[in-house]
Task: structure prediction
Amino acid sequence: RKEVEQDPGPFNVPEGATVAFNCTYSNSASQSFFWYRQDCRKEPKLLMSVYSSGNEDGRFTAQLNRASQYISLLIRDSKLSDSATYLCVVSTSGGSYIPTFGRGTSLIVHP
Amino acid sequence: GAVVSQHPSRVICKSGTSVKIECRSLDFQATTMFWYRQFPKQSLMLMATSNEGSKATYEQGVEKDKFLINHASLTLSTLTVTSAHPEDSSFYICSARSTSGGYEQYFGPGTRLTVT
Result:
């Protein structure tokens, strides 16, 4: 089983739709969780950190479920500019908190 | 804030030559920097973790003598691809993690290496 798993998609949704991605992780000692966004041929950019209490930033909401070992990202009112690959990143304690990336979920928002 | 630069952004070199890529954190100090490689339509692959003032830790399957990493200061890490081969052609991305705050990483814009 991979350490961090994501549905690769693509998720193809119309503008204005709500879309949700899940990411599961296998190491119960994982401490830090993030969502990054990567556009084609560009570097990943931090979208948001994921806290135990959940957090919201505008149209984006991230949740952490430690019991089931998954994190989620909800995007409301999708925009064309949301089209990208969304990467789930999990860091585990012990030394340097080495990050582990999921393979990413591709989102395509169409008019 | 949290800007990371990489230089060069694009490089073409001949087989057998060496290429140095610089990664700088511009407005924060980074005790830890990471080097990744990404092939087209594939996920990021961690190559090595670089801690300032100590030797880099390489991931399994990454040759430390081929990919030389130097993290000489809290704002600079370099990756040198030695004796480059065409199969080394890839997108190399560095990231830096701040000495303070959470464990977020901030990525450089990447270096596209083509070995002919």
Observations:
- Residues 24 and 74 of chain B are 9 Å apart (CA to CA).
- The two ends of chain B are 37 Å apart (CA to CA).
- Chain B touches chain A through 21 residues (CB under 8 Å).
- Chain B has a mean pLDDT of 91.
